[in-house]
Structures are given as structure tokens and as C-alpha cells.
Amino acid sequence: MDMSEKGIPGYAGKFLRVDLSKEKLSEEVFSEETLRKYLGGTVIGIRILYDEILPSISWNDPSNRMILASGPLGGTTIPGTGTFSLVTKGALTGGCTSCQANGLFGAYLKFSGYDGVIIQGQAKRWMYLNIKQDEAELRDASHLLGRDTYETDDIIKKELGKREGEMSVVSIGPAGENLCLFAGVFERKGHSASHNGPGAVLGSKKLKAISVSRGNKQVKVANPDKLKEIADNVRKNASAYRGTIGGVYSGQVSGRGTLPIKNYTTNLWSISKDDIEKFSEPTMRQRYNPKPNPCWACPATHSTTMTIPEGPYAGTVIDEPEYEQLAAMGPVIDIKNVDEASMLSSLVDKLGFDVNEMGWAIGWTMECYERGLLTKDDLNGFEMRWGNAAATRELLHMIAHRQGFGNILAEGVMRASRKIGGDAAEAAIYTMKGNSPRGHDHRTSWGEMFDTSVSNTGTIETHTSLTAQPPYHAGAGNPQGTAEGVSLTKGILVFSDSLGSCRFPTGLNHPLLTDATNAVTGWDLSYEETKNIGLRAVNLMKIFNLRAGITRELDLPSTRYGSTPVDGPTKGVSIMPYWNSMVRTYYKLMGWDEETGKPLPETLRTLGLEHVTKDIW
Amino acid sequence: MGRLRIIGKETNLMHYETVQGEEELNWIKNNDEQTDKARQMFQKYFMKGWIAYTVTHDNKKKQIFSFSPELEEIVLVPIVSGG
Fold first, then answer.
1. What does each C-alpha distance from A103 to A4, A41, A81, A221 come to in angstroms?
2. Optimal mutation site among A345, A450, A510, interface B, most CBs of chain B within 10 A
3. Which end of chain A is more exposed for a tag (fewer CB within 10 A), N or C?
């Protein structure tokens, strides 16, 4: 049975394939057997990537794929199901990447009759893809070149005669056009799928944007009563959720050492009570005049449009900054003025960058300048002192356009630091695969440092429940527990990312997500089966990456990322003496060869992946 | 005798800085009243999305998806997630 014949509940029924080289559009249908095994979103995306490209190709090879997909929950009444997953071979690591953006795109895709889009090839001229109900077209994008992600959204809606809410636009900014390796993909002004350089991949394909109109197709649901019960519960949780905007404030006042400060040179942030208070959630909401800009079906106080109220950036309209944005443009680079941090985080979105990598890149530049490892001349006349927002603003534009020192930073923090070399190379925060971590000081959160460093995607691949517990949380505790925790929970996050749902309203509740999937599709997947769906993708990614040359030696943090805190609650405590034994434990518990990390034939057989065994054994 | 540990009971979902608190519940596998109570407690937290795992006598951990009175020790911990 295929989707188009019988109409599998939860699915629109087809994927759109776009060959940019041939300017050819076609439709593809997956069997129910395939969907039950790979669901949608991240997992089906990984399956497509694995099947269709050689791991050895470069990220900018025209044969690289980008898959943007919703999943069976997409466009249902469950809050936050406008999310889509993006899968490609990433520009920073050269391995698989998977990241998600919330908003409306995933839901609108399904309402227009598509579960996902597979992009391949390279256009001869800049284009954008416009998806309408059951049809699509490639349009000229030459007039969009140089436009930021906010402007692109506005221009496309205007020229296609769509009002806000009638269309979702996914686009790249100047960073993606100019192939900055940490360029992201942005939906509706501020929702980003940006880890590991997907914006650069789209830029290499000369695809500026994808627009999708809100079609009128309904998502068929097998058990509406059960889905309603689940959606009502999720809505209740979502209504109480107020976002991560206050995370910098709570991170500072908690004193737990998880706030990333001045490129990891310290674990203690010197900031006045008045200044940190302005980073708090109530104060920001009071000062910034938020207007609701909700994601699909979601009542959370999380997605709003704000306006900077005063000072040199007064009147600047921004998407509500999340924790990681304010961390990257705040404590990481020692900017203590919340208006400056908000302006910069918004500029990062508009230019089309991943904000975490940008924070580490600017933080590294500032540290090098303060230590005399980079001079004013090296930096095109800018004094990149800690907290210099005006200079940072100019440098962001230079990176996006690959001008001057910006051309070096456009390669990402690992490559930039290696190019400068010497002591500067030791000061950069990244994993040896080439990506950088999310916006925390992971030296006090071993689970996340370990997961980030050993993951396939270039960012977290699991949640860190077990390792976040005391005493592990303090970072001084249990290395084996950390490795066990990361392996034990692997699969659930990736399963969640296959559904087309946001992580926040569902709280990554594994039984709830499984029950919701069954309610929508009419299947009877067990909790263990849904975890295995996620593990299937994790193992496929691992094999893909090994074949791409990403071997055990790269499952490691950089010198600074894995350094020993000089102050704060974990002063003098390092994870590194335990690292090799942790990796060995992790591989063993994942069912992988302890030395090489190759998934064992028995593991692949258990997951129904015996057909790929020959690829590595 | 079996043991059910609930770690991080006071956790505010999504904010791992607030993880604290621990509750413990014991049962004898042939005691219906005790196993029912443990099963209910397990179900309450499991359905909230908490991760459950069992710890065997040789200190091996294995994720579980249902309660069994035969298990020696079950630990429940809250999800801590990132965006």
C-alpha cells in the first residue's frame, strides 16, 4: 500500500523532489512499511540522505541533498506541530546534520499536500521554490540577492499576494549566499534550523528561499478522540510555558556555573544587579512590548515580536530572543547591556547565521585581541575588546559578506583558529568534528559536552536527563554515569524530531509522543519501537559519518572546550582524564565496536538495518 | 525487595538548574499492596515523560518502559531537554 492509494492517516501522501540542475519537479510516494520504520522528519531524512549520496562528497557538491520534512503529527491540533526537520551533509563537519525550526512551515507543507521536500542539484541562477497546493514552481530570485531573512520573507509574501499567516517562507540571508560555513536556514523571521551550516548548503545550490502557501488539506487522523485528549494535555502545558528568554538571568543568579562567560576564560560573570535584572523574563516582556507571533496551534508565551524600547537601537523590531541567542551575544562576549545583546542576536538571524557558532567566533576573536594574539590591523581597524557591541555589529556584516577578517571567521571557529595558529588555536571552543557547542558552559554539564562531542549531527543528539542529576550535574562526579546516561537515552530525541512537533510543548514526553503517533496513524507502535526508530537514524548517521572519515579521533572536544575551569563551582575539575574510557563505555552500550565505533552487525540486525552491514564490515 | 527511586521530584521541566529532591519507595514482590503502590507511582512519572531504568545487581543500567515487581531497582528521572 502506498500513501496516495489509501491515504495513510497522519500523512499528506507525497514528497516533492526538486532537481535544481534540471529545473525539474517530481513527486514521490513512500510505502506504509517504510513510513512505519522511518516515520518522517529527521529519520526519513537520514534514510534518504544515506540512500542517495556518497558519504565522501563535499557538502557543496551538487549531488548533496537537503531534505525538509514534517512528520505524522505535523499540522494536527497538537501545539507546535508546524515544526520541520532539515537533514543534509553539513558544511562544518562534513557529516550528517539534522536540525529543526519551529513556526508554520511543516504544517503548511502538509496542508498543501506534501510531507517533505527533497532538494538536489545546483541551479544555474538564483531561484526560489514556491509551493502551492499539490503543485510547485521555481521562480527567479535575482531580486532577493543580498536581502536579509526578514526582508526576504516580506518581499516574497508581497509579490505572491499573501498576507501574514497565509504563507510560510524559509530562506537564507547574505551569510548563506556567501557560503559562510555556519549559515542557517530561517523560517518566518527568527525560527532557525542552523546547526552545521545548512544555509551554506542551500547557498551552494543557489536556492534563496522556499515559500509554501497554507493549503486547505486536512491531516487525516485515525483516532480523533484520543488525539484530542493528548492535544488538550499538551495545550495545558504549553499555556504555562514562557520560553527561554530569561535563561541568562536564571543562569547567572543560580550560580551553578552553566552560563558561558567570556569564551570560557572564567566561570564567574561580573555584571551589576541592575544589568542582570534587565535580562530577566518579566523585565524583558515588560520593556520590549511583545506581540504574539505564535507557531502552529501553540498557546505558549514563547514566540513573539518585540521592539527595543530605548537607546541607540530604539525601535529595532526583533524576534523574541531565546536563551542561546542572549547567551551568545551576552555573557560569551561580555556584553552586559541587554538591548545590545538583543540587537546583535536579531542581526545574526537577519544575516542568516547560527548564533551559537557566532558567539564562540566573536568570543574567540575578543579573547585573542585582549591577549595581543590578534591586533587592530588584523581586525581591519576594529578594537574587539570584551563587550564592544558596535564593533561586533560591523564584524557580523563583514563575516556575512566575507570581507577582511570576516572572511576568516566565515569558515567557523575551528578553521579560523587553526588558520591563526599558535596560542590562538588553543583558545577556540569547538568539537574536533568542526562544529561548536550550544550556549552553555558544558564544563559543568558533562552530559551535554559528551553528547555534543560524540554526536553525529554536530549538536546534541539526546537529552541529558541522567547526567543532569546531582552529583553529576555539578560536573565533578560520575564519568561512567555520564557515558551511560547519554547512551541509555539515545533515540528518543531523534524519534521526537521525526514527528514534526516542537520539543517545548510536548516536553519530549516519550510515552505521550508515542501515544500521539498511534492516535494519528492508527498504528500500535510500542514505546520500545519508537525509541528504536530514533536509534535507526542514529546508527545510519554513524555509519555515514564513519564512511565520510569522521572517526573516533574526532569524538573529542577542543582544548578550550574540554578545559578545566579556573574558578566557579567546578574549579579545578576536568572531564578529560576520563574521556577515553567514557567513549569506550558509550560505544559498548550503543552496541558499537569499542575501538572504532562501528555499529556491530548484531546491533544493526536488531534495528532492521542488516542491509547496511556490508557498508562498514 | 524492590526499590523505586524518583530523582529530581521537584524539577521544573525544562530548567535543569532546578533539579533537586529525591523520593524512594520500596516493595516486596509478593506483597500486592506494595507492588500496586509502586506500579502506580511508576506509571504516574513514566507517563509524564520521565525516563525509567533498572539497575541490576552487577550495576548495569537498562531503560525500561513498564513496571515489573521482579526488578531489583528502578530509577525514574525527569527529561531535561534543549532546543
1. 27, 15, 8, 21
2. A510
3. N
For the stretch A237-251, pLDDT in tens is: 899 988 899 999 999
CA distances in angstroms from A407 to A181, A365, A423, B61, B69, listed in the order given: 11, 13, 20, 48, 62
Q: Structural domain tally of chain B?
A: 1
- Cα–Cα distance measured from residue A83 to residue A102, given in angstroms and rounded to the nearest whole number: 4
In chain A, what residues touch B77 (CB-CB under 8 Å)? 465-466, 469
Measuring CA to CA, which residue among A257, A252, A254 is closest to residue A475? A257
The tens digit of pLDDT for each residue in A125-174 reads 999 999 999 999 999 999 999 999 999 999 999 999 999 999 999 999 99
Residue B79 resides in a domain: no
Q: How far is B69 from chain A, CA to nearest CA, in Å?
A: 19
Interchain proximity B48–A509, CB inside 8 Å: yes
CB-based contacts of A236, cutoff 8 Å, min separation 6: none
Nearest residue to A205 via CA among A72, A45, A89 = A89
For chain A, what is the mean pLDDT? Answer: 94
Indicate if A415 and A447 belong to the same structural domain: no
Q: What is the pLDDT of residue B75?
A: 82
pTM, full prediction: 0.95
What's the CA gap between A488 and B61, in Å, rounded? Answer: 8
In chain A, how many domains are there?
3
Q: Is residue B48 part of a domain?
A: yes
Q: Is A32 in the same domain as A162? A: yes
Q: What whole-number percentage of chain A has pLDDT above 90? A: 88
ipTM (interface predicted TM): 0.86
* Residues spanned by the domain of B29: 23-63
CATH of the domain at A125: 3.60.9.10
Measured between beta carbons, the chain A residues lying within 8 angstroms of B81 are 463, 493, 503, 507-508
Alpha carbon distances (Å) from A608 to A98, A411, A591, A597: 21, 38, 14, 19
Domain C-terminal end among A402, A426, A450: A426
Range of the domain at A81: 3-213
Contacts of A411 (CB under 8 A, 6+ apart): A180, A181, A419
